From TrEMBL:
Pfam families: Aminotran_1_2 (PF00155)
Family: Belongs to the class-II pyridoxal-phosphate-dependent aminotransferase family. Histidinol-phosphate aminotransferase subfamily.
Record protein name field: histidinol-phosphate transaminase
PANTHER family named in the record: HISTIDINOL-PHOSPHATE AMINOTRANSFERASE (PTHR42885:SF2), HISTIDINOL-PHOSPHATE AMINOTRANSFERASE-RELATED (PTHR42885)
Organism, scientific name: Pseudoalteromonas luteoviolacea
Length: 349
């Protein structure tokens, strides 16, 4: 009975399959691009009878200090995923407008658009990286939002900030360039936040899930100029951030915590370099994609090797890319976790 009430776009929707949606068992978890570093926080829970601040001032100010922005340019969201949803709900008319994305890329852009009956202009990463800006803009067409995942998940590729700036300039008055910087802490010099001083049609998505080691908190930020965010503020839920989340996020953005995060990023980048060396030397691997972020994506000669890793208790993320189903993304873990990857790579065929 209820199925007959579903809109066609929801009935036909293919839900996003997250790394944690499958009921897997293992001992070494390298499938969700999480940080291996657990942290402890202090919570005060004697005020949960009151609604929280819609945009907690202390957290906003702390993120402003971190990102070198002002409070009107920062909106706190429930993960970067809510930022994606909010931009589509605010700037795209259902059944009329479209977005552009560059595949392969993060799957939630498509799911969010499909959910809201927004058309998708699916372009390629090679177009984004290799074509000139004029050609890219021609291909973007009438899309209201243009999503650039930078570094890109799952390939790790980077679009130069200068190219993003040129795209924003060419699309001024036509589209918003949305730069998803979920992994930017692993290459902070590549951030597009500096473009906000010059462009009204650039929005940047950020998260505390990766480098800040708070995937379980579901906290993100949407960064843009005041006029762009003013419309989004009309759409966001009245109390999107819980009191407990705000308390933890404020502590995670303290000066000492940011210093610790950067130290951990340095360690993880070093672990990544060592993993890339192991992968490039392994007979199990046919190619390794070079890029940024706390993960490495590779193609296996034999996809059955993934099952051998799972039997060992090492859980990584299989992918189908470029028409082949023998791709694997490995999150960067600590030294002990990467030792498990080495042992898997050295297993005899």
């Amino acid at each position: 009975m209820s199925e007959s009430l579903l809109p066609k776009n929801i009935a036909e929707l293919k839900a996003y399959s997250s790394a944690k949606s499958e009921k897997l068992t293992g001992t070494t978890w390298l499938n969700a691009n999480e940080s291996p570093y657990a942290k402890e926080f202090q919570l005060r829970l004697d005020n949960l009878n009151r609604y929280p601040e819609p945009q907690p001032e202390n957290v906003i100010n702390a993120y402003c200090n971190y990102a070198k922005l002002n409070a009107e340019q920062v909106l706190m969201t429930r993960g970067a995923d809510e930022g994606i949803e909010l931009l589509m709900r605010t700037y795209c008319e259902s059944g009329k407008d479209s977005i552009a994305l560059f595949a392969p890329t993060y799957g939630m852009y498509k799911v969010s658009a499909d959910t809201q009956n927004i058309a998708i202009n699916e372009l390629s990463q090679s177009l984004l990286l290799e074509a000139n800006v004029s050609e890219i803009c021609d291909c973007v067409g009438d899309a209201k939002l243009v999503f650039v995942c930078n570094p890109n998940n799952p390939t790790g590729s980077l679009t130069p900030v200068s190219k993003i700036a040129a795209l924003a300039k060419s699309l001024a008055g036509k589209a918003i360039v949305v730069v998803d910087e979920a992994y930017i802490e692993f290459c902070p010099e590549q951030s597009a936040v500096s473009l906000l001083q010059d462009f009204d049609n650039v929005a940047v998505l950020r998260t505390l899930s990766k480098a800040f080691a708070l995937a379980g908190l579901r906290t993100g930020f949407l960064l843009a100029n005041a006029n762009l965010l003013a419309a989004v503020r009309k759409v966001i839920a009245p109390y999107p951030v819980s009191t407990a989340v705000a308390m933890i996020a404020e502590q995670a953005l303290s000066s000492d915590a940011v210093t610790q995060m950067r130290r951990q990023v340095s360690i993880l980048n070093g672990n990544k370099a060592r993993l890339e060396t192991l992968l490039n030397e392994s007979p199990k691997v046919s190619q390794v994609l070079s890029g940024e972020g706390n993960f490495v994506t590779l193609q296996l000669r034999n996809k059955d090797d993934i099952d051998a890793a799972m039997q060992q208790g090492t859980i990584m993320r299989p992918f189908t890319l470029y028409g082949d189903d023998n791709w694997l993304r490995i999150s960067i873990g600590n030294e002990q976790e990467l030792e498990q990857v080495r042992l898997w790579l050295e297993q005899p065929e």
